[in-house]
Amino acid sequence: MQRSTEQTVAGVIARLESRQFSYILVFDGAEDSEIRQLTPTVGGNVIVTSRDPEWAYDPSSARLEVPGFDRAEAIQFLRKRGGRLSGQEADGLARAIGLLPLALEQLTALQLATGQPWEELLARLNEPFTGILSTGQPSHYPYTVSASLQLALTQLGAANPVALLIFELFAWLGSEPVSIVLLRCGRAAGQISPPLLRALRDPVQLPKAIADICRYGLARLTTARQVEVQPLMRLALRDALSPEARDRARRNVHAILAVANPGWPDDLASLDMHREMAPHVLPSDLASSTLDTAQRAVHHQIRYHYLFGDYRDACLLAEAAVTRWQDSDFLGPGHALVLLVIREWANALRALGDYQRARELSEDGMSRLQGNPEYGHNHPYRIAMEASLAVDFRIAGEYRKALRIAEENYRRHVDRYGEASGHTTRSHHNLAVSLRLVGDFRAAENVDREILTRQHENLGVEHSRTLLSANALAEDLYGLGRYREALDILRRYLPTQSRMRGAPERAVLLARRTAALVQRALGERAQALEWLLAHYHDSNVSLGSDHESTLAAMMSYANALRQLGRTEEAYIHATDVVGAYRRAFGQANPLTLAAEVNLAVIFRAQGERTRARQADTVASEALRDVVGDRHPFTVTALTNLATDLSLAGDHTGARHLSEQVFELAQDICGPDHPATLVAGANLALDWVATGASASGEQLLENMLSSLRRTLGPAHPTVTEVACGHRIECDIEPPST
């Protein structure tokens, strides 16, 4: 029988090679090179499909790699199979399970077999060890993903047991490709399985094992020397492994990630390894590891995610760590790592706009520190948590309290670290922010100018912290009415952001907004509007619609629209902002009140004078209570309330209020500040309206002369004052 079979095969091949007819011979799913003995050499075409990449190196054949679906094809496939799936839902499914056609086919078969809603099915897939992937066999494939995987695992284990040990790791690694560099970090791990350790240390054995994994179709090696395993294959692998193998694989992954950790990300020139680790820390449940090196790696990864704007992943990882570690049977609620991660968690929540939860965490962390005598008054953890609390108070609008904390915190930093320390510099920067928020722009300028000089010398022009300091100084100069100086600073530093690698988006966003505000203040209103719209879109994408920076961006855009006469659009945006501020910060927050002052300006532009006066009355009284009579917000609100009185015919009341405002502005802002000059120009109109024409005309001439000198003769405000128009004032929400 054996001889007959060989003769039959030889006869078929000879007939095909006789050139009597054309043919196409297909070998589907070839697994070894013995198939080459069955391929004719002439007379037709032979197609071999295989998951073994070795076939690609046959010089006698043409290679054609058949990739998985691209994302658009995967979405289209799922929507055809998935009934009422929306495009967004299909995209989410494709991201979760990958683009492998077999995986997508089984998923749709699985949904049909179980009848579960797609959302529930996806949640079950993410639950390990459910066995769900062994059901729902696709009609066009002989095996499920699980069955195909089990067959390949058996073959791989027989051919190369060490390769199987390496592939087990992918049950706990993330769906992103895993670099060989990251795997080889395990060479230094002391808590890793001995056979795996030997393979990772062997320059020959590791590449061979990876090649065997790819040969059995379990993974592919990318051109970037990364091993890629399809997401659904990774999920199936967890189900396929025995409990002992699962535990072994997880311990090994934890050991590799722990030893790969390059250290605290703030202090590193290169963050490549943190970037390699990042997709795998959450899927591997590294926070559950009892290795102290793994716990430090988790802490550092939380910080890494925060620095690069991955705030949601930072929150997820921090929550997992704190929840696990604070258990009394693990590290305990007062452990140093728990307290450090609580602070990082609060930072990430704050960046996401969850201000209340961030403050609760900061206060909880401070309470734990204060209750433990190990953490004295000047302990680094106490100092750091205190700095976070100052930020929470700033966001809550408690500016004076935040300033007191920031002043004390800076003194403690100097005592603990010295003036030249990076920790002290950051504390000094935060002090300047608090000074700016209470309206003390001169003091803030002195601090920020000193910091910028130091950052420039120590970090260079292109560092993100240098840009952050440059923007802070520009904000101070803007508050002082020195717009051209502010623009010069930004022109010097902002263009460098395009060359920054991994620059935190916040520094760039802040600087772009300040540049747009300065342009508007200098009279370039159309250009400022264009820049502010782009900034608003960027903030919305980067930070989310309810983040305070996004709300500030929308408010600035509304102010610019109103100034250009597009009051209907301005009204829509301003009302949205006021509502969002009320929800996020409360009715009495200075940012909410400032937004209401701006909305009142729009009311007046639309002819709704009564609504404007009511809004200004309420806002000005509230601002007096919250930030005081001498705060720039209050001065602006009172300036506009005087306009309300004038428009209502109460010229005497308007004059008395304008006199108070002009005196305050001169004292707070200085005699040549544009806000002071505008207040003086409005007062001149009130004097004329109440019969003091000579005094009013003289004051108006003085204010016009100073405005021409300060803003330039072609500035729109100069023209408006010369025409006898009353000037409207708005408030640009400050960065906190």
Describe, in plain words, how this protein is organized in 3D:
It contains 34 helices and five strands. It is mostly helical. Among the domains are: 2-57, no CATH class; 71-142, no CATH class; 144-246; 523-722, Tetratricopeptide repeat domain (Serine Threonine Protein Phosphatase 5, Tetratricopeptide repeat), CATH 1.25.40.10. A three-stranded antiparallel β-sheet has the order 3-5-4. A two-stranded parallel ribbon has the order 1-2. A hairpin with a 4-residue loop joins strand 4 (220-221) and strand 5. Helix 25 (525-543) packs antiparallel against helix 26 (548-563), helix 28 packs parallel to helix 30 (632-647) and helix 33 (693-711) runs antiparallel to helix 34. The longest helix has 19 residues, at 399-417.
What does the main sheet amount to?
3 strands, antiparallel
Average pLDDT works out at 88
Remind me, CATH topology of one domain?
A: Serine Threonine Protein Phosphatase 5, Tetratricopeptide repeat
Would you identify the CATH architecture of one domain? Answer: Alpha Horseshoe
- Cα shape: elongated
The first-to-last residue Cα distance is 86 Å
Tell me the Rg in angstroms.
34 Å
Question: How helical, in percent, are the residues?
Answer: 55-70%
Low-confidence stretches: 136-143, 499-504
The secondary structure category is: mainly alpha
CATH superfamily of one domain: Tetratricopeptide repeat domain
